[in-house]
Amino acid sequence: MSDTITKVSIIISKGSLEGIYPxxxxxxxxxxxxxxxxxxxTFFGLDAINAKRLGHIKVAAVGNPGMHMAxxxxxxxxxxxxxxxxxxxxxxxxDIPDIPEFMEMIADTGCGMFACKAxxxxxxxTKEDFIPQVQEIITVGEFYAKAAGGEIIFT
Length: 155
What we know:
Layout: E1 7-12, H1 17-32, E2 36-41, H2 69-73, H3 79-93, H4 99-108, E3 112-116, H5 117-123, E4 136-138, H6 140-147, E5 151-154
Helix pairs in contact: 1-4
């Protein structure tokens, strides 16, 4: 058995900035290392590929243990927007692309992008609701078939 990872399939289930970026960064890193990568967007992670929502992803200020003190005041109006802007400025300083640019960049490397059929049906979406980089709407079984022989990462 080889210790080399040759394929990863990453599940993105959260629709917040801190829920989406880890999967994008991992997929981008995999592709940069020549590792086959697939992204599977499910439940609120569909916001990452929803053409209308993609440009409006925010930091979750309430209930986010990583926000520490800000989580206590996160219920105040505007806190999510403030936290989001602060995070965006930090990412800009490190030259991390915004989500729409990152999605396009990753897709251009050959990363597969798939929407979860059960979640798509649950929320009443169609393929037309998603960005063009989404290749297919697939079932969980089809996702497992694509992930076969590789590692599955749940972010």
